[in-house]
């Protein structure tokens, strides 16, 4: 009777050990898959963000957004003097 109990206990321990190792292998495989995915995906997203940022900070886009938002950062006469290549601080020559 005792030997049967020992055999059953060892069988249960062996089966549970196999089950735990199988789960561990599955989890390790999932972790490696996610690591490989993010190793490729994160630099791609970073590149996309850098491209978007460079587009948004280009002078043409900054001017367009300033005009769309009607920001009056400089007065109209200074703006025309800047466009003509004159100093914005001095009045135009007459």
Tell me what the structure shows.
The chain is mostly helical and 94 residues long. It has three helices and no strands. The radius of gyration is 35 Å and the shape is rod-shaped. 0% of the residues are buried.
Share in β-strands: under 5%
Helix run count: 3
Coarse shape: rod-shaped
Q: How does the helix and strand content classify structurally?
A: mainly alpha
State the order of secondary-structure elements, H for helix, E for strand.
HHH
Determine the mean pLDDT. Answer: 83
Radius of gyration: 35 Å
Helix content: over 70%
Oligomer: single chain
In total, how many beta strands?
A: 0
Structural topology:
Layout: H1 2-56, H2 59-68, H3 76-84
Task: Jot down its keywords.
rod-shaped, 3 helices, 94 residues, mainly alpha
Question: How would you briefly describe this protein structure?
Answer:
The chain is mainly alpha-helical and 94 residues long. The chain has helices at 2-56, 59-68, 76-84.
């Amino acid at each position: 009777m005792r030997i049967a109990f020992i055999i059953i206990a060892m069988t249960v321990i062996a089966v549970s050990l196999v089950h735990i190792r199988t789960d561990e292998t599955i989890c390790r495989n999932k972790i490696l898959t996610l690591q490989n995915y993010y190793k490729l995906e994160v630099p791609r997203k970073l590149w996309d963000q850098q491209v978007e940022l460079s587009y948004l900070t280009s002078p043409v886009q900054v001017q367009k957004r300033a005009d769309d938002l009607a920001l009056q950062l400089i007065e109209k006469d200074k703006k025309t003097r800047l466009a003509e290549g004159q100093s914005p601080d001095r009045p135009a020559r007459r």
